[in-house]
Design brief:
The chain is α+β, with helices and mostly antiparallel strands. The chain contains 2 helices and 4 strands, in the order αββββα.
């Protein structure tokens, strides 16, 4: 799936841990459940950063 398809199919608004800004294409790429009381925490990356850094969203990992 390329970035344009990704932006259409899975939108969220979150902080991109790579370019340090909010993005409406950010997706969870790494979970950090350790110490989490209310919900899973983790690192999110926007579509551009996922492409540049070769990151795969958790939901797409097998």
């Amino acid at each position: 799936m390329d970035a344009s398809q990704d932006a259409v199919t899975a939108r969220s608004f979150a902080w991109c841990s790579w370019h340090k800004r909010f993005s409406d294409t950010a997706r969870l790429v790494q979970r950090d459940d350790q110490g989490s009381v209310f919900d899973a925490r983790g690192l999110f990356a926007c579509a551009d950063c996922r492409k540049i850094h070769g990151l795969t969203p958790v939901a797409d990992q097998q």
